[in-house]
Amino acid sequence: MRDNRRARSASRRRTRTTTAIVLLAALALASCTGEQNALDPAGPFAQAPHDLIIPVAIIAAVVFVVVQGLIIYSVVKFRTRKDDDGSLPVQTHGNTRLEIVWTVIPAVILAVIAVPTVQGIFEQMDEPDGDVLTVEVIGHRWWFEFYYPDFDIYTANEMAIPTDTPVRLEMTATDPIRDPEQGVVHSFWVPRLAGKQDLIPGQTTFLNIQADAPGRYIGQCAEYCGLSHANMRARVEAMEPGDFDAWVDAQATPAEVPEDGTFEAQGRELYHDLGDGRQACAQCHQVWEGDGDRQPGTGPDLTHLMSREEFAGAIHDLDEENLRAWLEDPDAMKAMQYEEIGIGMPNLDLSEEELDALVAYMLMLDPDA
Ligand code: CUA
Fold this sequence. Notes:
Elements: H1 2-30, H2 44-77, H3 96-125, E1 133-140, E2 143-148, E3 153-156, E4 158-162, E5 167-173, E6 186-189, E7 197-199, E8 205-209, E9 215-221, E10 233-239, H4 241-251, H5 263-272, E11 310-311, E12 316-317, H6 320-328, H7 330-334, H8 338-341, H9 352-363
Parallel strand pairs: 1-5, 4-10
Antiparallel strand pairs: 1-2, 2-3, 5-8, 6-7, 6-9, 9-10, 11-12
Bound molecules: dinuclear copper ion.
């Protein structure tokens, strides 16, 4: 009796575990939808692989059902029965006709799939026709830098593009020889706009993207690149061509210089020189005020910082509160001990007043203000 009860409660526990696993799997699959959904393409370079994967998935599903069905059929039909005399079934070895059939059918399926696949790979690799916008993408630890060579514009984390225009990304990662700590492979992936492509130090790789409609397309680094890999996100802001032209005009103007004697002017001085032998912002960042060429620093360009919505690898909203917290203690904001890795935004040991002045200066770096 007791054994029976124990067996029943064990079986109930098993049922509950199975139910929990099924529910968790359903939840995990539900997260495949949403903003980073490769099955919801928003432009031709994401549409092409999508149009290929659907028929291939259908063929794979049919093969799966047929093979599993045959296995289940055989297991049930040829199971051991009570009245079995224990003798072995008739043993067969080899069936030339069957073997030819199950070799030829998969070979034909693979050959048929290979034609559009190879064609698609070349189409994705080629430079697109028509009016193409070029954007250089540089992978840093841990943020993406975007440079528009046609307009001499630098930005970080957020890439603006015009809709219905093919964009050719020329991608690389920071140079491992100049910067041994940073030279690692990253991967740029905005699932609704294109497949993923690696960014390799010392090499240039290419990726085409295009958005049919205005909007914000979310992406991230898709290649493990160190402890903060999960904090390396990217945004593509697609806008109507007219809005994009306005964006370019705004970004191509020099940063505003605060008037002498203002609090912001104090912040600007601190930006260039913190004193006490402390590292200043200007050693790594650039605020271009119109003299000479724009020179990228090792950190993100801040010329029009406040035109962006996010910062720090696009993991924090760019507002006064977060900016202050970041300047006060960057490690806490990235949940990461940068000192152990030896790179990234340092803690500048700022006093309250220095913080206020620097934040006031940063907040005026906005072309639309
Ligand atoms: Cu960069 Cu992962």
